[in-house]
Amino acid sequence: VTDPLGLHARTAGMMVKKAKELGCKVMLAKGEKTADAAKMFAVMGLSVKGGDEIVFTLEGDNEAEAAQTLEAFLKENL
Question: Quick one: which of 2, 19, 61, 64 has the most CB atoms within 10 Å?
Fold first, then answer.
């Protein structure tokens, strides 16, 4: 995460919205904690700070396309 503020409410909200649009299950992990990326409180519960490494796991019919969309979104917003 390159944003010094980390995954704060505004960016988390945008990311949750994007995860819901992708049409597949999106999970977010920080260390050993995981969260459903389509659920705001779950994402905020990870307390992602600037400089933290996060990992996304996608499951569904259009994983490859969804991964590219999510990657572009993250580069632009985080």
Answer: 19
Residue 4: how many CB atoms within 10 A of its CB?
Answer: 8
- The model's pTM is 0.88
8 is catalytic: yes
**Element spanning 27, H or E:** strand 25-30
Q: Is residue 47 helix, strand or coil?
A: coil
Taking Cα atoms as reference points, which of 56, 60, 59 lies closest to residue 70?
Answer: 56
Contact 21/66 with Cβ under 8 angstroms? Answer: no
CA 3 to chain centre: 13
1, 4, 5, 8: the active-site residue: 8
